[in-house]
Design brief:
Blueprint (H helix, E strand, L loop, with lengths): L7 E8 L2 E9 L6 H16 L6 E5 L17 E12 L16 E4 L5 H11 L5 H4 L6 H13 L5 E2 L5 E4 L5 E9 L4 E9 L8 H16 L3 E7 L3 H9 L3 E12 L2
Parallel strand pairs: 2-3, 9-10
Antiparallel strand pairs: 1-2, 3-11, 4-10, 4-11, 5-7, 6-8, 7-8, 8-9
Length: 258
C-alpha cells in the first residue's frame, strides 16, 4: 500500500502441506526488485507460519526483476531456470506427419483416459527435474490432482479438448499425451506434453505436439506457447525444430525444509 492505494498483490493456494503461489503483480510505476521482494517475502512469511506447511512452489512469470537473484528466505530455496516459448501457428501448417503414425494410433483426448494419463505422468517424470519443481508429478494420486486442475480450472487458460491428443501403442496402451488450453481467442498454450519412457525417441512427442498445434490453428489461433525447464535440452531442441522460440527466461522456485 502507498498512501492507502493498493500497488500490487499476490495470491496462493494451500493444499494439505504444500502451497502454490500463483503469481505476483505490481503496478508498472512500482515494479521494482525491492517491491517484488517485499510482496513475495510477506507471502512467504504467512505461509511459513501456517501450521504443517512443508513446501512452497512458485513460477512467477510476471516478476520483472532478475529471476535468479537472491530471493526472500533463500536458505530454503531451490531455483530452476525455465523458458517461456512461443510459436507462430501459420508456420506449423507445413510440419510433416511424424514417423510415429506408422506404429501408433492418435486420438483426441477424452476424460475417460484421465486415470491412465495420471499413471503415464508419474512414470514419465520419474527422476526428471520437473518432478522436483512440481511434486504432483511424483505419484499417481498427485498426477490425478494435476490433471483435474488443468481440466477444471483456468490457471493456464481454459482447457481445450479439441486440441488435446493422445497416442496409443499397438496394444492400445497410452503412449503419450498433449494437452492444450485457450489463453485467448487467438492464443493457445500447451499445458502438458509427455511420453511413456518406452516410447521416447520414436517421434511420439513430435506428432502429439504437431497435432495440438494444427488443431489450435484450425480453431483460429495464430500463436501458441509452452514452458520448458532450461536444462531439458532435448525437449528444447524439439520445440525449436517445430518453430518455437524462447521469449523470456523465468524461474520455478521451491522453498522446502523450513
Amino acid at each position: 500500500m502507498r498512501a492507502g492505494r493498493a500497488i500490487g498483490y499476490s495470491y496462493y493456494v494451500c493444499e494439505e502441506r504444500k502451497s502454490l503461489i500463483g503469481d505476483l503483480y505490481l503496478l508498472r510505476e512500482f515494479s521494482t526488485v525491492e517491491n517484488e521482494d517485499l510482496l513475495l517475502g510477506s507471502v512467504l512469511q504467512a505461509l511459513l507460519n501456517t501450521p504443517y506447511m512443508l513446501r512452497v512452489e512458485a513460477q512467477l512469470l510476471m516478476m520483472h526483476g532478475p529471476s535468479e537473484r537472491l530471493m526472500p528466505f533463500s536458505h530454503y530455496l531451490r531455483v530452476h531456470p525455465r523458458n517461456f516459448m512461443i510459436a507462430d501457428l501459420q508456420d506449423s501448417v507445413g510440419l510433416p506427419e511424424g514417423i510415429a503414425t506408422q506404429k501408433q494410433t492418435f486420438e483426441r483426448w477424452h476424460e475417460s483416459r484421465q486415470d491412465e494419463a495420471a499413471r503415464l505422468i508419474a512414470k514419465a517424470y520419474d527422476g526428471h527435474v520437473d518432478s522436483t519443481i512440481n511434486d504432483q508429478y511424483r505419484t499417481v494420486s498427485g498426477a490425478k490432482r494435476f490433471l483435474l486442475n488443468i481440466v477444471q480450472y483456468p490457471g493456464c487458460g481454459s482447457f481445450f479438448a479439441p486440441a488435446s491428443h493422445i497416442a496409443l501403442d499397438a496394444a492400445g496402451n497410452l503412449a503419450g499425451i498433449s494437452l492444450a488450453s485457450l489463453v485467448s481467442a487467438e492464443a493457445g498454450h500447451i499445458t502438458q506434453i509427455c511420453v511413456a519412457p518406452g516410447e521416447r525417441k520414436t517421434g511420439t512427442g513430435y506428432e502429439l505436439l504437431r497435432r495440438s498445434m494444427a488443431s489450435l490453428a484450425a480453431h483460429g489461433c495464430t500463436k501458441t506457447s509452452l514452458t520448458v525447464t532450461a536444462s531439458n535440452q532435448e525437449a528444447i531442441r524439439l520445440y525449436q525444430r517445430m518453430g518455437f522460440r524462447a521469449m523470456r527466461r523465468f524461474a520455478a522456485y521451491v522453498w522446502e525444509g523450513f
